[in-house]
Design a protein that fits this description.
Blueprint (H helix, E strand, L loop, with lengths): L1 E7 L8 E7 L6 E10 L2 H7 L16 E8 L11 E4 L2 E3 L5 H4 L11 E2 L20 E5 L4 E2 L6 H4 L5 H11 L7 E5 L3 H12 L3 E6 L5 H7 L3 E4 L3 H6 L4 E6 L8 H4 L2 E9 L12 H6 L3 E4 L5 H14 L5 E4 L4 H9 L6 E5 L4
Parallel strand pairs: 10-11, 10-13, 11-12, 13-14, 14-15, 16-17
Antiparallel strand pairs: 1-2, 3-4, 3-8, 3-17, 4-5, 5-9, 6-7
Helix pairs in contact: 4-5, 4-10
Bound molecules: NADP nicotinamide-adenine-dinucleotide phosphate and zinc ion (2 copies).
One zinc ion (ZN) binds next to loops.
Length: 349
């Protein structure tokens, strides 16, 4: 057992405070990682602030983890001490169901094991604790390799924001000449812009923040539509093949469906805390549209995404924060004031 420094919440209103947690001794297939950076995902905010049902406190959030391998179990073959590695939203799954065997561990039919906040069914029980910590121990099958030369802090958000947007863009087979809309320019949204551009698409950003327009273009967007301006929304009518929705708050999708052309698809990634306004079936029927959702990505696809990003020079635009700034960073995320991902420097824990 190792004692790790960490930041945890003890209730929905406690904020995050310094603490220590126990990490298991590395088993035969485990990798012990000295964490250097951990991205702040809006899912951390939803979970820690009790916006989704079922948070177990005390809880250390964080599932965009980058660090260095410090120790390995005797059976570990894929990683060596000193390797730069990542851990995303999954640390285990059943490894037996069709989804697991097909590389879709996130859709494990027996329930995946998230990096924080769920029972760890294979490692002596307890609740998994995430990456706002100085170390973590993870089975090598759920550890990713950070490509050589990639900036470690800017790579961290790829482990959730990167894969969560890459996976549906690949599933929709987005390629050269396609037009893609991205709703919300936060952590996921800015990765969706970069990855869709790297896949060859023309990208329209829908934002509620007119002040982000210039930055969206700098990120690579071809068009920016301020979604609160009906004239701008009308000008985007039927212009898109696909939309990636990354909004963390309750919002009405119907106005966005009108921007999709025939056979378009809207994939929802944001999981707001309350019910969303109903979708008008007529909007789907009139243009043979599809409305779907997508959950992060499997382990093999996450590695594919990291390698794709390395090849295309894609990383996250980050603002490094200290442990003492976590609560303030959460408030800024809720206010939509993030350019475009906060990353915790674990040296400050
Ligand atoms: P984030 O960085 O806070 O970005 C969310 C963006 O949504 C904001 O920057 C803002 O962009 C926009 N927004 C906020 N309030 C809005 C409103 N009332 N109406 C319209 N737009 C609004 O959050 P994130 O980390 O990217 O996460 C986004 C969502 O995805 C969260 O719900 C998170 O839990 C979820 N998520 C899902 C998965 C998955 O596997 N499906 C994985 C990770 C995260 P503008 O200022 O540009 O409008
Ligand atoms: Zn996340
Ligand atoms: Zn499974």
């Amino acid at each position: 057992m190792t004692v790790a420094r960490a930041y945890a919440a003890t209730s929905a209103t406690s904020g995050l405070h310094a603490t220590t947690i126990e990490r298991r001794e590395p088993g035969p297939n485990d990798v012990e990682i000295a964490i250097e950076f951990c991205g702040l995902c809006h899912s951390d905010v939803h979970t820690i602030r009790g916006e989704w049902a079922g948070t177990t406190y005390p809880l250390v959030p964080g599932h965009e983890i980058v660090g260095t391998v410090r120790r390995i179990g005797a059976g570990v073959r894929t990683f060596a001490v000193g390797d730069v590695v990542g851990v995303g939203c999954l640390v285990d799954s059943c490894r037996e169901c069709d989804s697991c065997l097909e590389g879709f561990e996130q859709y494990c039919e027996n329930g995946n094991t998230g990096t924080y906040g769920v029972p760890d069914r294979r490692n002596g029980g307890g609740i998994t604790q995430g990456g706002y910590a100085s170390s973590i121990v993870v089975d090598e099958n759920y550890v990713l390799r950070i490509p050589e030369g990639m900036d470690r802090a800017a790579a961290a958000p790829l482990l959730c924001a990167g894969i969560t947007t890459y996976s549906p863009l690949r599933y929709l087979d987005v390629q050269d000449g396609d037009t893609v809309g991205v709703i919300g320019l936060g952590g996921l949204g800015h990765m969706a812009v970069k990855i869709a551009k790297a896949l060859g698409a023309t990208v329209t950003v829908f934002t509620t923040s007119p002040t982000k327009a210039e930055a969206a273009i700098a990120l690579g967007a071809d068009e920016v539509v301020v979604s609160t301006d009906p004239d701008q929304m009308a000008s985007a009518k039927y212009s898109l093949n696909a939309i990636i929705d990354t909004v963390a708050a309750v919002h009405d999708l119907n106005q966005y469906l009108r921007t999709l052309g025939r056979d378009g698809a809207l994939i929802q990634l944001g999981l707001p805390p309350g019910p969303m306004p109903a979708i008008n079936p007529g909007a789907l029927i009139r243009k043979r549209l599809a409305y779907g959702g997508s959950l992060i990505g499997g382990i093999a696809e996450t590695q594919e995404m990291l390698d794709f990003c390395a090849e295309h020079g894609v990383v996250s635009d980050i603002e490094l924060v200290t442990a003492g700034q976590l609560d303030e960073a959460y408030d800024r995320m809720v206010a939509g004031d993030v350019k475009y991902r906060f990353v915790l420097d674990t040296a400050t824990l």
